[in-house]
Amino acid sequence: MAEYEAVIGLEVHLHLKTKTKAFCGCSTEFGKEPNSQTCPVCLGLPGSLPVFNRTVLDYAIKVALALNCEVQRFTKFDRKNYFYPDLPKNYQISQYDLPLSKNGFINIDTESGVKRIGITRVHIEEDAGKLIHTDDSSLVDFNRTGIPLLEIVSEPDINSPQEAHQYLVNLKNIIQYLDVSDCDMEKGSLRCDANISLRPRGEKMLGIKAELKNMNSFKGVKDALTYEIRRQAELMESRKEIIQETRLWDEKGLKTVPMRTKEGAKDYRYFPEPDLPPFIISEEKIKEIRGTIPELPHTKYTRFIQEYGLSEYDAKILVSSKEDAFFAEECFRAYGEKDKKLLVNWLIGPLLSEANSRNLNISALKITAGSLLNLLVFLERNEISNLTAKAVLTDMLDSGKSAAAIIQEKGLVQISDSNALKEIALQVISENPKSVSDYKSGKENALMFLVGQLMRKSKGKANPKVAKELLKENLDA
Amino acid sequence: MDKQLNTLTAHELIEEIKANRVSSEEIDACLRKTLKEINPKVNAYVRVEGSSSTEKPLNPQGIPVSIKDNICTEGYATECCSRILSGFAPAYSATVINKIKEKGHSFFNLKTNMDEFAFGSSTENSFFGVTHNPWNLDCVPGGSSGGSAAAVASNEAIWALGSDTGGSIRQPASFCGVVGLKPTYGRVSRYGLIAFASSLDQIGPITKDVTDSALLMNIIAGYDPNDSTSVNIEVPDYTKALTGSVKGLKVGIPKEYFVEGLDPQVDSAVKEAINTLKKLGAEFKEVSLAHTEFAVPVYYIIATAEASSNLARFDGVQYGFRSKDLNLIDMYKKTRGEGFGDEAKRRIVLGTFALSHGYYDAYYLRALKVRTLIKKDFDTLFKELDCILTPTSPTAAFKIGEKASDPLKMYLSDIYTISANLAGIPGISLPCGFTKEGLPIGLQILAKHFNEEKILSLAFAYEQNRDWKERKPVINLT
């Protein structure tokens, strides 16, 4: 299938996590009793009118700027008309010919280097309700109706399922840094549809596309695209017709199935929303919001490498969560000028695996930068072994106690002073004549047995290296 | 004590209440008694038969305002006189209703008749049957606020609210010989007004005289955070405009409004009104509104386009009428097919067509451009003029059924009122005489945005100098 090139564009819908809905004062909280978060406006009751929640605009501008889009100075809402029972007004307030912003991009890493994926437009719209189907009827939950959505449409610049996956990961990462959406595909706060067509490599004309829906994870998007490339390639190979259609991803069957055929473009009869006057976004407003955008992941990534000498691999892991990157940087600063290798290894090693096993971010663990560094001091001074240190960390996270307290309470300080161990060493030698004679007759294993005995007598506190030296010294003497 | 309380104006009754000579309960009771006698003849109010509302006053306070059936009243049926909204009692009240209560008045809990969804100029398109003109029961009361206008004219209401999208307050006021004011777009909140055409709709007073119009404006006007198209400009005390003095007021007479199609009796009544006002010191000048001829076609594209979208929500899913069918698409089709009347269907189809792919530019977009030209015509004139004076409608009330089968003829009865909605400017209609058949003739006064005071001032001065409002219809109750 190498002779075909896939052309992919992604359409991402993102719930903005404003406290209230886009056009009324209802709460946006997830998982509440059906239809408990509704009012005449989001129920589309006759006579009700929408009022635009300005926080939505602030969040949307923030996203548009972070995605390098041009924010339009003059923008308006339009009505998208279609009948569906989850849409109480039978039109959706959306944006058509004058979207909030256009012409952005984000960069992704590919095997052949950094690639720029264009963003056609970012616009604001309202979400629809949720249909719940029972055996003999369908019910509507309007809690989701009117929740602010951003639609982020990419250019068809994506050429493989891997690139699509990377695009989504980077997009989600940026949005999370902005703190304007939960980006949770399972809760539906991030949804992604994909348009995909194939064409012979080198061909300029676009092929007939399919629109893929119903993917519930980034992996689902990747799998659906992989499947669809194979399906379309097989059709082309066998010279069968590809039809323009919407297909649903069947997660269990691992295949796409046809949903509906698009007979040309659907006529949504867009026209300007007469209930909401157009609005002008001032230069000052844009400047003000630009000022609230934090350092974004790619900038932080570069800076971590330059400023703290991190490897690309380590830096990438650390910036993949805003909170973790923030925690890491706190550690770096407190750590001073020392080489960061041990610290970084601990951050992306034991700390990250503790976080993962607890289903938390590193930053959400019961540990501060200071207390982590205190633990590492014991390691650096060889006062505890690496193994002990990991156990202490677990204890710290469970109990919230300091490393010093745990080490002291449990008497975990390693004994590296050979004078302090000498008495035990002599005792071990006198109690194990067989092993001593084995060693003397050249059996190296016997020495390891004696070290083990010493470790046992010291209750594990003896520095094994020192113990071995000490025993050897006394046996060889 | 005078038991004919229902014949008084609101400002007269307010004085009576202040002087402790009458109570709100007495006014309410008097209205209900009159209604019982007259409504079977006039049909100004709907859902009267078998309604407990006829007997039970709704905690009356102040002067009860009668409400058109497209303005939401919490807990009381609001059906836009359409089958498709049958049984719909809103869970909330319109902002104007809340304002009426805040200002110490109440609303009358029986709603007034109207053309279904305000689609019409005769009230013949009501699911509840036509309203009869109190001056001649064989004639229409105008529309779409025909119920409110007829109720005020027949003393079944003290004062009332209507809505005006293309003349629906002014034209019935003209036909029924009462005063109807369409405020500037954005002056009165539309929250709770069941939308016909959102960019044109305004709620306004229908009253027995100009003073009541000013008083009711004082109550309902003002910015509403729930309506993004309402404008945050201070509300003046409109009664202060009622000085009687019009000296030096510059008034334009648009020549395009005095052409073929204008009934000679209406023409001469309006010209006489001009003479009256001239004598009072107003200065008149012939002017031109060059794009007038396009107002009706532009209106029927924009209004129907918006209506087609606004009425999409009436689908049988959440409220109102639902036809039985298990299949969703068929349920939609049957509900809407059985729930909407002919005129509503006609306008939904027209509007859907105007917004359709491939036709949008030629119809909707072009209509928006011409709308801007119409607005500019007014803006230019109002740089030099205080008001513009025209007939309200080309004719007096026509016979029931006369135009019902010819929608185009019907649409032309709003030819003089539509431009004000397209431009967003305020306009009033007040009586300026009678035809020899005894039907009222209306005079329309327009002014620039938020200049309702100039309109009221000119209207009041005219009203004070003529005694038209003393004439009352006599309804044969046998």
Task: Describe the overall structure.
Chain A contains 15 helices and 16 strands. Chain A has 477 residues and is an alpha+beta fold. Chain A is elongated. Chain B has 478 residues and is α/β, with parallel strands linked by helices. Chain B has a single domain, classed as Alpha-Beta Complex (Amidase signature (AS) enzymes), CATH 3.90.1300.10. A ten-stranded mixed β-sheet of chain B has the order 2-1-3-5-4-9-10-8-6-7. In chain B, helix 4 runs parallel beside helix 5 and helix 8 packs across helix 10. The model of chain B has no long low-confidence stretch (mean pLDDT 95). The chains are: A alpha+beta (477), B alpha/beta (478). At the A-B interface, loops of A face helix 8 of B.
Nutshell version of this structure?
The complex is a heterodimer of chains A (477) and B (478). With 477 residues, chain A is of the alpha+beta class.
Rg of chain A is 31 Å
Overall domain count of chain B: 1
Query: How far is the N terminus from the C terminus of chain A?
Result: 74 Å
Could you give the order of the helices and strands of chain B?
Answer: HHEHEHEHEEHEHEHHHHEHHEEH
The biggest beta sheet of chain B reads: 10 strands, mixed
Q: Mean pLDDT of chain B, rounded to whole units?
A: 95
Q: Quick one: which chains have the greatest interface?
A: A-B, 30 and 44 residues
Summing up helix and strand content along with how strands pair, one would put the structural category of chain B as alpha/beta
- CATH homologous superfamily classification of chain B: Amidase signature (AS) domain
Count of β-strands of chain A: 16
Separation, N- and C-terminal Cα atoms of chain B: 27 Å
- Global structural class of chain A: alpha+beta
Mean pLDDT of chain A: 91
What share of the residues of chain B lie within helices? 25-40%
The DSSP helix count of chain B reads 14
Helical proportion of chain A, percent range: 40-55%
Low-pLDDT runs of 5+ residues of chain B are none
Which descriptor suits the 3D outline of chain A?
elongated
- Give the biggest sheet of chain A: 9 strands, mixed
Question: How many distinct domains of chain A?
Answer: 3
